[in-house]
Write the structure tokens for this entry.
Amino acid sequence: MILTVTLNTALDVTYGVPALAPHSSHRVDTVTERPGGKGLNVARVLAALGHDVTVTGFTGGATGTVVRELLAREAPSVTDALVPVAGSTRRTIAVVDAATGDTTQLNEPGPVITPAEWAGFLDAYGELLGTAEAVALCGSLPPGVPVGAYAVLIRQARTAGVPVLLDTSGEPLRRGIAARPDLVKPNADELAQLTGSREPLGAARDARRRGARTVVASLGAKGLLAAAADGIWQAAPPAAVRGNPTGAGDSAVAGLLSGLVEGLPWPERLARAVALSAATVLAPAAGEFDRAAYDDLLSRVAVTELATAA
Amino acid sequence: MILTVTLNTALDVTYGVPALAPHSSHRVDTVTERPGGKGLNVARVLAALGHDVTVTGFTGGATGTVVRELLAREAPSVTDALVPVAGSTRRTIAVVDAATGDTTQLNEPGPVITPAEWAGFLDAYGELLGTAEAVALCGSLPPGVPVGAYAVLIRQARTAGVPVLLDTSGEPLRRGIAARPDLVKPNADELAQLTGSREPLGAARDARRRGARTVVASLGAKGLLAAAADGIWQAAPPAAVRGNPTGAGDSAVAGLLSGLVEGLPWPERLARAVALSAATVLAPAAGEFDRAAYDDLLSRVAVTELATAA
């Protein structure tokens, strides 16, 4: 199976309102809820691609119970191996203006994880690695988890011989990358924050020098830039796509992981990731991907080799 | 016991953010949750005043479970007689700007109540009336409940000989008032919407002609205006109070109900209601009242008799 880790799982709540006006009262017209946190989104896409996927991370409180109930509806393709904690899983509220589609996001910080809960997670994670073909470490850290948490999880995966992908930002990314993950997938902002450079190719090479075996940078409408040991590629959709970019990065991660466990060459992995990402932007519901668009786009992604060694 | 009815109970969630900026992403700094809906707020204040109080209305889903768990912490002073439904209790989100204290409110609509659930509620309500000294009908109606619901509940209370207070707005108020409640407590806007008049005394008299035995209008900083069969009174706090007005109207309702079951004359009821209301504005937490401020204000509320018959 493929394992995704979401230490700060969430219940993603979307509110439809006519228009958000600060300091006034709004009647919410529509309410939707789904399990959230990057690793859960990645898992959903992997399952849709036919992979056997297990999710772990923390869950707690009434909101955690709702997340698990919603996840159970996605079984058997997604296996719930979330670890219970005393605190309450966070909510994220996306307030969408009906007229314009503009979104205002409110993200709760998440539960405070105790040292004992973190130690318990490391044990559970170690066991799950025993049957994992690959692992993705995704998203922000909840309060209480050490900032070097991803470095610890990466070393554990490397010791177990499981390829590990890291998708986070800020200091957790900086610390994690030093532990030599197989793949990191920063977006342009995250890469610039890490390296200080806004020039993607130079920054991706810098990130490799910091410890990442491969860097796949997501460049929005320009697609993906991959810097691997054996080459550098750019992969772009056939045309710019318009829609809701929520979850596009998570779909790219799912494409990369899926290609990794299938042993696809880099150009094919990148084409899959770009097509999934674009098909997610095109889907009406945030974070879903449009299957027909994906099938159509897959053969039309342009992959260019920029160099034969990074 | 005193019975309060909250057909559209809520989980009131408060988010502290530095400043709300539409169409951007916010990290929420503080999250607080408490049982909400006007009747639950009224019950909390009645319990603090030493009354035995029972709450009923609808509750359902994961959010309903949280509301009941939080209510249980207030037991034994508040008895939970909420009726379970299949839909999910609504959340209200108050986003408070840390710098200015300005609040942006997002209110979910509430669960859709089926005809069978409404019929079941009427049975439960009828039983509760058997031991009630007074009943307060509070707040908005969830989807599915007939717009004339309060008229039905008022007639049932009158048949059972239980004094009934109505605190709602719009069409449910208009329909309810025609069923001859003992007391309605509109604010200035609700009274103007009902009667078409912004002149409080004339509008209160109009509301009496529409069926309310007594009208107590809440006029913000100006206090309360009461139009009863045996007189008209104005009750005002000794000075304008500054603070968070959330829940001030619910505290006034609690003061009126409390004075009713204790058989206090109108001037004393109104003084209590005004002091509680002002002490709620002064309390740091939304919807709580400041006990010391209440004790201090109680003797200092000015009650003026404007006429000896309405």
Q: What stands out?
A: The interface with chain B takes residues 15, 17, 20-29, 31, 62-63, 65-66, 69, 93, 95, 97, 102-109 of chain A (CB under 8 Å).
